[in-house]
Amino acid sequence: MVVNSIAPAILPGVLAVGAHRADGAMFLYSNHGPAYAGHGLTTLGEAVLGATPGDGGIKAQKGTCVAVALVTGIAALLVSLQRRLGQPADPLAVRDALLATARPCTPDQSHGEPMRCLNGYLDLPAATARLFPDLPPAPPEPAPSSVEQACAAAGNRSLPPAGGPSPATVAGQPSSPAQATTQAHDAGVPAALFDVRPIRRRDRPIGD
């Protein structure tokens, strides 16, 4: 078994992130090994819609960098929800909840090597429930039914050209941001987690 130890992901205080394919199987290039034991988890790293530089459009992306971006955003939203509920921001508690609720992968998903999945697959509803046990789940809310509607709702009408890359549609996997949000609502993730508000732009440099 060939494993890689890449800094800073191997540091015990870092939340390491691996990537799995849209069908749930681990990417073979996703780093794993003893150095990541106890402080890593895995999430989707394929068919994730992301921005394309320069043209304001979107396309399906893949890779561990995509998985890292998803987990980073989720961690930030959970810390934001702590603040919204009047709790102190506690990113370490968020990290611990994400690790403690990660779901074990199957032998097929790990290619027969369970260590490939690190602590397991990200389970956002379980992590949210662990952090906020008294927060009732929100009922499903109306959501856009297509990528076009989701982009229009966000004020971004630039879409990939016809015939361009599109996310793979796999049973049980969301094929658009709208579908992902709807699935999360159905799974009991509070609507407050998705109530993201713009940050007011500063008129002066941050250092002033």
Please give a handful of descriptors for the protein shown.
208 residues; two-stranded antiparallel sheet; Rossmann fold; 4 strands; disordered C terminus; alpha+beta; two-stranded parallel ribbon
Notes on the structure:
The protein has 5 helices and 4 strands, in the order E-E-E-E-H-H-H-H-H. Helices cover 27% and strands 9% of the residues. It has one domain: Peptidase S8/S53 domain (Rossmann fold, 3-Layer(aba) Sandwich). The protein is an alpha+beta fold and 208 residues long. Mean pLDDT is 75; it is low at 156-188 and 194-208. It has a two-stranded parallel ribbon with strand order 1-2. Helix 1 packs across helix 2 (91-100).
CATH domain topology: Rossmann fold
The fraction of residues in strands falls at: 5-15%
Oligomer: single chain
User: Residue share in helices?
Assistant: 25-40%
CATH superfamily placement: Peptidase S8/S53 domain
Radius of gyration: 18 Å
